What we know:
The protein is α/β, with parallel strands linked by helices. The chain has 12 helices and 8 strands. The protein has an 8-stranded parallel beta barrel, surrounded by 5 helices. It is globular. The protein starts with a strand and ends with a helix.
Amino acid sequence: MFGLSVAIATPFDKNGEIELNEFKNHVFNLLNSNVNSITFFGTTGEGPSISFDEKINSLNYLLNENLKVDKIIVSILVSSFETAKFEIKKYNELGITNFLIAPPYFFKEPDLTALKHWFIKVFSSSEGKNRFFLYNIPQITKVKITCGLVENLQNKFGPDTIVGIKDSSGDIEQVNQFLKLKRIIITVGDERLIATAMNSGGSGSICGLSNIYPEILLDIIQNKKENPKIIKIVNELIKYPIVPALKSLISIKTKNKIWLNVRPPLNNLPVKSIVSLKRIF
């Protein structure tokens, strides 16, 4: 079973720089909670707002602090297949081989054949040891990962390369379609759907709320039962811009205001909204 991977948030100081010591503390606190892995620089991690050099430097720092490479999944969120290939190669040089890869998202609703060719360009130059999770988050990318695309890519590259899907559509019908696929790990990003997905053959979750409630989410995955508290919190969080709201909850939990900071083009959550979120914590 895949288990729980934390879609980790990235801490920034007041000048917008990554606060590496706080990042380290957060990573290892989560691993000490028995999560299975950490997914870096995705949506929750504000990956598109962070330069590639910053990502490499952060991961180098964490690896030097004894973070194990088998606990790392790195997000690839780019529209150029050449950039995707370059980033994967550089991460490989650090020993990292697990990736969450979104479709190219600048040109909206591309032809499915062209989308398949984009992924082929990326995967054809990839080393055999790399493992890819396809990231379906169409409300952000405006590009859907379809079952047909997954099957085509698996037929060409095999299930040891195209190992999984993260579905963050929030659509249980889409999740159910993915669950009909064979030889692939299905994870969900919407915490409200984890129990339902697990009862239908799902493998776990890559989600943002595990930054705050890793033990509860591990319990949902292991026991395949909904937790009313988590459903209530998610329903409240989605009333706000999700990343600043989630980071505000981390700040409330850790009592560290550094977690309130987000990078442009996002804005910090207003104080009155943070006060409202404290009531559900």
